[in-house]
Amino acid sequence: MESNIGYESETNLEDNLIKQLIADKYEFVEINDIDDLHNNFRKQINKHNAKRLNGHELSDKEFERLLVKIQGKGVYGSSKTLRSLQDILMDNGHIEYIELFNTKNNEWCKNEFQVTHQVTMIGKYENRYDVTLLINGLPLVQIELKRRGIDFKEAYNQVIRYKKHSLNDLFRFVQIFVISNGIDTKYFANSDKEMDFQYTFYWTDKNNNRIDNLFDFALEFLPPCHISKMISRYMVVDNTQKNLMVMRPYQYYVVEELMKRAYETNNNAYVWHTTGSGKTLTSFKLSQLLSTNLEVSQVFFLVDRKDLDSQTIEEFNRFQKDTVDMTDSTNTLIKQMNDSSKKIILTTIQKMANACKNDKYQHIISKYEGKKVIFIIDECHRSQFGEMHRLIKRKFPKAQYFGFTGTPRFKENASQDGRTTADIFEKMVHHYLIKNAIADGNVLGFNVDYVRTISSTVDIEDDEEVEAIDTEEVLMDDQRISNIVDYIIKIHDLKTNNRKYNAIFTVKSIPMLIKYYDEFKKRNTNLKIVGIFTFGANEDGELETEHSRDSLERMIKDYNQMFDKNYNTSTFQAYFTDVSTKVKSTEIDILLVVNMFLTGFDAKKLNTLYVDKRLKHHDLIQSFSRTNRIETQNKPYGNIVCFQTNKKAVDDAVKLFSLTDNADEVLMKPYEYYRDGFKKAVEELKKHTATPEDAEHGGNENEQYKFVLLFRELIRLMIKLKTFEEFNFTDEEIGISQQSYEDFVSKYKKIYREHRQKIEETSILKDVCFDIELLRNDKINVNYIIMLIKNAVNEPSKEKRRKTLDEIEKIIESSTDPELYLKSKLIQGFINSIASEMSSEDDFEYEYNHYMEEQRKYEIREVATKYEISEDKINKFIGDYEFGGFVDKSDIKKELKREIVQREKELNDYKSSMKTKNIITGNITQFIKDIVIKYM
């Protein structure tokens, strides 16, 4: 449909939108302030409850009681209030129940719908809201507009500002925000929590075609019946995190389609929604809605046991408290099935299979014969479900199966028995592919490096040639393993933004994993390397010298020492859970796996996958997708480094699971593409702002605004460039020197600071997103800071020197360089005690080195005194580590006196003297390592 909204001013945009809404059966009402809002709410609530109250209208006192009851809550509390009846004491002494919003199935159209504009609300500041949709007098949808040509994210920033300043009273009931500049339009849920632009969504049609024009969006999303249906059925009040969520369009279409299929047919179906698109929420919302239908006797939500980790359990319980059975006992499942009050049962595929084939449970299973039962299968591409399907089909003859997968089985990647997903689940009712998710900003694309590790005449792009060589001998070669470890150590900080993120390293087999683990240990790197795998007599082969369980045992022992834990292979599940948690919190730098953690594991801070195995089809997409969860704009894509998997395998998998012939929609373009784009962006910047000195444009806010937009584009491209090994920060390479870029950054920050200090609400910059978090520069390291301090000392003016030193301290605080982080307090101490008083005549190098040596002695003396070990001994330990890269912990333990161990045990309430000794030894070991890095 052609849009008739394309006007330049916000006023025209607003007027045309209101005309469209009135045509869509909204009543226009003029509301200027909070008194008008309350008066209108009173009229509408009386109208909506006329039948319930037998025509009685609320008196002043009765209405006041209603207001007192529903006000003073946050968004979460207001959302719960909106969806429940309010018991009000009437003047006659009786209790009546007032309905704020009719959410009943298929009755959501039976509400009162109005539209208003420019409501003035006063909080910290006075604000006027653009367009408000009222349902039964409550403002439930708030629409903020920007004129055409303005970044619509500014409308989002305006919403955030309003929430801080004045979105109070009945506006706490707002459920959905809509932002638009006429051309681009998105919606998102209200929240008490800090909000994030990544959770704003475009609406689409069923085929994932975006509806971003405001006029078209209003026709599809804002009609009274649809918007009230979205609020009633397709929002989730998360009782665990006390938050409000709204479903995305593809989630909406799937639930609608599968509910129709459940009520009108007995046919199976499956959904293909790419990894990371929120299949758990979609499938659980579906199960909730199906469970309310009287024709459906039971809804079983089946998940594979290995996916039932702490993350999955937490997510399921968010939607329905205590819904997950974490036991391995099939008896627990049977008890649930025997409880008629449980309409939704979440269990594992394995337990359901046991229940179906065990004779002692058949008296319960048989109760479902002849009843309509629906199985919702998570990750239904798994081959084992094909085996289970035959088993339960006999036990549940009227069962219907709905499968959810991010990577279906096609003929190209059929399961071991040759069947595809469609063979089991019949029709695919909806797909939302990885290319759709990337385009919508719901997941990231991939940046893939292919690294040759074998010099031979074999064509690594030719699978037959590669498989023809003795791969086990070649791939496990000591030199090859050593080279790859060196390469990973070299690039890891680059790939992970100086370890702000972390990585998984997946390898072909357990013997290969063990070999890599030992090779990393030889390096004595400060990378935290952890290994995990499921041991077994016949799994992935045996080592000649050491059983795989013994190997895992010593890896866990290292882990215990690293994190002060006490796991072993007998407590493997607890170890698995703790590793999962530490990967998510980036306490682990590289996790070595064979197959674990490559499906169903979501960690926003994981951004890199090293691959030394041959992946293809669904295994490749599943593994790659561990890295592409949205975090912040500092994470532009998932990094993949392939040591075996070739480009053809990647392209084939991407094409297969994107239904496209063009893999570039998912894979990031080469370095040259972003470099050339950056150069063009520099040219555009310099046309408008030739030098950093020109950035403030004499205080002209319109020109400053243009500068901010142009430079923000450079920042975004710089984030991408810095992840490439080829990147070289020079004028010749990218069109701007590092010094010039940093000078522009300083001006950009200055405009940002001045904007933050403005009180006037009329500033043109008030809603600009500065993306200030993107300005961390990984090139800022110790040498760079020392150079800045040295230059500052040469400043003739004490005032200017102090100001420069203050700015240096701020740079230190915002840097992500690990060495600088370790030395930050040390350098800040030097700035404040020495540098601030120095003059240009003083010998800077002498003063700096003397200060460092004195601080080093002081720190050693402190540790020596604390643990009553001689300074000479501590210095010897440090010297041994500097020379050989190894700390002999047994030597440290020999120096620990019994009374010192006892003192620390009592002081810290440790359980045993042995544990206390290990902890002290660990503390001293870490001190030795830190002091070597800090004072190198």
Automatic annotation (TrEMBL):
Its EC number is 3.1.21.3. SMART domains: DEXDc (SM00487). Keywords: ATP-binding, DNA-binding, Endonuclease, Hydrolase, Nuclease, Nucleotide-binding, Restriction system. It comes from the Bacteria. It catalyses: Endonucleolytic cleavage of DNA to give random double-stranded fragments with terminal 5'-phosphates, ATP is simultaneously hydrolyzed. InterPro entries: Helicase_ATP-bd, HsdR_RecA-like_helicase_dom_2, P-loop_NTPase, Restrct_endonuc_type1_HsdR_N, Restrct_endonuc_typeI_HsdR, SWI2_SNF2, Type-I_R_enzyme_R_subunit, TypeI_RM_Rsu_C. NCBIfam families: hsdR. Belongs to the HsdR family. The type I restriction/modification system is composed of three polypeptides R, M and S. This is Type I restriction enzyme endonuclease subunit.
